[in-house]
Specification:
9 helices; two-stranded parallel ribbon; single chain
Length: about 240
Amino acid sequence: MPNGGGRFDRFVNELHDKPWFKYLGAWILVPIWAWLTPVKRLPGGPGPSARPGDNLQSMMNLIMPLKKENRSPLGRAKAALAIAKNRDQIFAGLDNVGTVHFARFVIVNDNICMFSVYDGDFTNYIRDFIVTIGSVFNAVVELVEGGDAVIPCEKNVEAFIQWIHEHDLYQVPDTATDFLRDQEALNGDRAVSPVNDDLTLLPRKLVLQLRANANVSLGSGYRAYPGFSVAQVRKQLGLGW
């Protein structure tokens, strides 16, 4: 916002704090913006990077909405039991995934979620999952909206990978201009040099994207040992692998 000292500038700068403007913005202005400037939903997961350090401790924030008939305490209990009764198989499978990772299942409202941090390539990570716990994961996915289309996942590998990718949260980049580049790439601009790095457009574009992606992950996360995998740390310590 400009820092002008005029009466009109002060009025504009204070608009976002006005209750009437918050209501007007949420229910009238944003829908009009979205209609005039259609925004596609940005894909989930971290973007591809040639820098090795960016492919370590990547985050997967898998949000799977339960089917309508399961959106109740009984349905959430059914989802919890699907994990609990297969716990030993799931943990054994997770131990045998060929990727260094840390994972956990969480129920948030009417969503069953899997949050993990992994090293390496996303597609290879999911393929490892299918091999080790695909049959068990089917018991979870069948409770989820749209899950029937990819079951059994071990026989629908590519569709399952795409389904997981679509349910993974979009990760808002740490650098503001990278968010603008993501928007441009989604609209078909593959140029190395960005067409539009106008930061004055960032608030509006972010509002429109948060309308398309209601849930997002903020940033690439904090890395406890940036640039090194667990295997490299263990090797350096002489622990083997």
